Amino acid sequence: MNPTELILSRLPGELEGAHISKLLLPVEFMRAPELALKEIGRLSPAAVIMLGQAGGRSAVTPEMTAYNLMEARIPDNAGYEPHATEAAPGGEAEIPASLPAERIVEAIRALGLPAELSHDPGRYVCNALMYSVLRSLRGSIPAGFIHVPFIREQTEGVKGRGKTPFMELDDICRAILEAISVTARLI
């Protein structure tokens, strides 16, 4: 179970006068960026907001920076398990996100929901995707990545469940809708 797939299914087709296109990507280092960049090229969007799960976090966390490093502790869904491998050989070591992350965090908190800026997207598929998209767009449009925590259903039956952070799916959806609204108002 991945809450981002559930979030995508709940997003409307339009918000703040902006059309929302959704794309579910595989958890694969190579295919996720390839498919995302192909769709971005096809759509020429005004902004790109990518979502992923970060178990262990207790808040919605817009990422501030993507890193040119892939480091897998487990294989991706295609069996690829890179170690100390650059996402773009010879590329910049890091690239800042161009989403209005601070405003997004403030707006989500104003709803009474937990949100924090993050400077560590990990080095798994989420980071590789974010890095590839940011590198391709070169700041031409607002783009970035938002990690979401586990949802309650993912922690049920887990030993030590009371210690595993989660948010309710409805709250995460509200937070992501707010992130989209904040971004849409700036474009």
Protein architecture, described:
Helices cover 35% and strands 13% of the residues. It has 187 residues and is α+β, with helices and mostly antiparallel strands. It has one domain (3-154): Peptidase C15, pyroglutamyl peptidase I-like (Aminopeptidase, 3-Layer(aba) Sandwich), CATH 3.40.630. Helix 1 (3-10) crosses helix 6 (169-186), helix 2 packs parallel to helix 4 (125-137) and helix 3 packs across helix 6. The model has no long low-confidence stretch (mean pLDDT 96). It is globular and about 40 Å long. The strands form three sheets. It has a three-stranded mixed beta sheet with strand order 3-7-4, sandwiched between helices. Strands 1-2 form a two-stranded antiparallel sheet. A two-stranded antiparallel ribbon has the order 5-6.
Keywords:
single chain, 187 residues, alpha+beta, two-stranded antiparallel sheet, 6 helices, 35% helix
User: What would the CATH topology be?
Assistant: Aminopeptidase
Shape: globular
Question: How much β-strand is present in the residues?
Answer: 5-15%
> What is the name of the CATH architecture?
3-Layer(aba) Sandwich
Low-confidence stretches: none
Question: How large is the count of helical segments?
Answer: 6
**What is the N-to-C order of secondary-structure elements (H for helix, E for strand)?**
HEEHEEEEHHEHH
**CATH domain class name:** Alpha Beta
Per CATH, the superfamily is Peptidase C15, pyroglutamyl peptidase I-like
Approximate helicity band:
25-40%
* Overall average residue pLDDT: 96
Number of strands: 7
